[in-house]
Amino acid sequence: xxxxxxxxxxxxxxxxxxxxxxxxxxxxxxxxxxxxxxxxxxxxxxxxxxxxxxxxxxxxxxxxxxxxxxxxxxxxxxxxxxxxxxxxxxxxxxxxxxxxxxxxxxxxxxxxxxxxxxxxxxxxxxxxxxxxxxxxxxxxxxxxxxxxxxxxxxxxxxxxxxxxxxxxxxxxxxxxxxxxxxxxxxxxxxxxxxxxxxxxxxxxxxxxxxxxxxxxxxxxxxxxxxxxxxxxxxxxxxxxxxxxxxxxxxxxxxxxxxxxxxxxxxxxxxxxxxxxxxxxxxxxxxxxxxxxxxxxxxxxxxxxxxxxxxxxxxxxxxxxxxxxxxxxxxxxxxxxxxxxxxxxxxxxxxxx
Length: 352
Fold this sequence. Notes:
Elements: H1 3-14, H2 16-35, H3 48-51, E1 63-74, E2 77-86, E3 97-104, E4 108-115, E5 120-129, E6 132-140, E7 147-156, E8 160-170, E9 177-187, E10 192-202, E11 210-220, E12 224-230, E13 235-243, E14 248-260, E15 266-279, E16 283-290, E17 294-304, E18 307-316, E19 321-332, H4 335-344
Parallel strand pairs: 1-19
Antiparallel strand pairs: 1-2, 2-3, 3-4, 4-5, 5-6, 6-7, 7-8, 8-9, 9-10, 10-11, 11-12, 12-13, 13-14, 14-15, 15-16, 16-17, 17-18, 18-19
């Protein structure tokens, strides 16, 4: 680098304006650290204590299912599994057979599934540092030209979390198309955190791009968590979760959607769900009921150290329909592997 260019760089770094900005950022960082704000988690898990910990969400199933897994190693983790399913067909139904394999280490996680219809799905996670993780997910259907690619990068700060996602991004159509999502959640106080989600999408170059912004807030008290979410499409979601005792959790979720139906009219649709979870010594029971007339139950019981039975039931009182599912999960591992699994549970940090 010649002397003139070096002098220009020194001027940019040492001019009064740069010094003021640098000092201001340093003071702001010092005061921010003095607040000792905790990390609030991710924006998409703003109500995870209820939606993933208590409510059934996507855990219910119908028909019969059997999962048989063989664990070959723990550090690093390596296992294969065979899944068999039989029941009602339709969209979202499980395929009769699926083969899965996964590998996990401290920085890498790899998983691939292929079913009897030739549909392949694979995902990989890589931890660059304790704060940064990159994830990818690919799905390819046999005999179809359509495929799905998802890319995601997460950053976990001391008092905030940020992530960026891309679904089927491409420049081959003469411009940028796909779906892009930016999420950010910041701790404001030790109990309150605020965040937003910005979405930009363009299906093809012949369509106009769309942009949407959603907002979220989370408040964590002593043994309870409340959250509120406002989506750009006009949906409002309220959740409340509380730990009643060491083994009992309960919560309520209310969602309201408001959509215009004409020039001077709107339509509103809302559902409220109440759920509870009770952990027994060898089993776990979840139950929920909502205002649409649906009652759901999920019971998981470990009948042996490597065998788990799961019962799923749902009854729709308004439609007079019922769904029932029964599953058995069997893990096969040697005694040495089982001992290593217990020892590595607290030391190994796989980026799932």
